[in-house]
Amino acid sequence: MTDLGTKLELIYRLRGEKVGSAIDELKGLEKTDRQSVVSYKEEKLRRLMDFAEKECQFYRAAAENTKPASNSTSAFEKLNRLPATDKWIIKKHLPDFICARMRASWRSTSGTTGTPFVFKKDRHASAYMDAMMYCAYNWHGIAPWSRQARIWGSSVGIRGKLVQKAKDRLLGRRRLSAFEMDAHNCRRFFYLLLRHRPFYFYCYPNAMYQFVLSLERLGLDGRQIGAAVVICTGEVLFPHQKEKIEQVTGCRVVNEYGSTENGIIAFECEYGTMHVLPTVHVDIIDPDSDGFGEISVTELNSRSVPFINYKIGDMGRVLDSGCKCGRPFEAFEIKEGRVNDLIVCPSGKKVYAAILAYVLKGHTAQFKVFQEKRDLINIYIVPETDYNPQIEKKIRMKLQNYLGNKMNIKFTPVDNIAPENSGKRRYFVSRII
Ligand SMILES: [Zn+2]
């Protein structure tokens, strides 16, 4: 059985989550081949669908409305016949999705897209989610007990803050609140980390980017912290951010793609490939000629609320190519920006909002863009020190290359841009979609 360390063993035993045996199962899978992974997923999928059909009103009704599958139908074909879901559908029909007899706890998403979502997560699924995390993190030498520096959202209110601090201490974490990232707090966190000696950072890329820019401005050497890895999650990690974080901290920057509902979906290996993890099955809906389409996830161990054909609102593609790391998991690429993160131009052309980050990089410490009208975008920026009207002119010209000359671009310099309630930063908000 995999060693989790005494504290974690105890926590999981109290929670009734068999994380150690799940780690062994998932680690064993890493040494097999692609076909074994497909068979493993198919068997898990079959069990999930049988369970859902028996225990959940939504899937009982779905089964009655579809032609029964023949015995020779593969689990993947059967999956294709089941309806697509998303958080709005599950939220609206939650009692029809919940299996009450599973031991489970309530969880909720941060609601960065404007829709907080509350659902039940059972012990079986939680154990696999955590086990998968430990396995993937171990690709970069991180152990379950490795010390962590976290730049993240933080509880509000005195009681919430105290509970969070106690939990962080117990789990070897130190936290910088993404809500309070001024120079004073960044400096304090830096000195705290010199004593804590974290092995890795766990952070939103935008918050981490703010932190390293702050260190640079303060003349502090991020390499002194002595961390080895930075795991970025929850937001798009742009290449210029990755480069700067690597340069300031001396760490390897690793991209994680996941959701509160389903845990980690894909994770970057030591050769820079994102791999689809074996706790989920990913389908791509209506792929374009490059294979990119909307991501649909089936979480293979979910029970209390089965997540089947669950659309999470992002675009990506799955590739069958192999990787130098030798793991038999498919490669995965995420397209920058969510399905709704599109700038609609006066001509009707749609452009991924990620273009804003590429054009504004290097000139702004932070930015947030609102599309107010079909022909007006408003860019709030926290300027870098060398910012001047010439740079603004250059940015406008570059953006108009993509968005057309009829797009009006307004710049509003500000001192600070507050993050969302979760601590994430949404850089683009459309008010016309
Ligand atoms: Zn790999």
List its salient traits:
25% strand, 2 domains, 37% helix, 11-stranded mixed β-sheet, 4-stranded mixed β-sheet, alpha/beta, Rossmann fold, 433 residues, globular, GMP Synthetase, Chain A, domain 3, binds zinc ion
Question: What features would you describe in this structure?
Answer:
With about 425 residues, this protein is of the alpha/beta class. It has two domains: about 5-340, ANL, N-terminal domain (Rossmann fold), CATH 3.40.50; about 340-430, ANL, C-terminal domain (GMP Synthetase, Chain A, domain 3), CATH 3.30.300.30. Helix content is about 35%, strand content about 25%. It contains 14 helices and 19 strands. The protein has helices at about 5-15, 20-30, 35-55, 55-65, 75-80, 85-90, 95, 125-140, 160-170, 185-195, 205-220, 240-250, 355-360, 390-405, and strands at about 105-110, 120, 150, 175, 200-205, 230, 250-260, 265-270, 275, 280-285, 295-300, 310-320, 330-340, 340-345, 350, 365-375, 375-385, 410-415, 430. Strand 10 (about 280-285) and strand 11 form a beta hairpin. Helix 11 crosses helix 12. The longest helix has 22 residues, at about 35-55. It is globular, with a radius of gyration of 23 Å. Zinc ion binds next to loops.
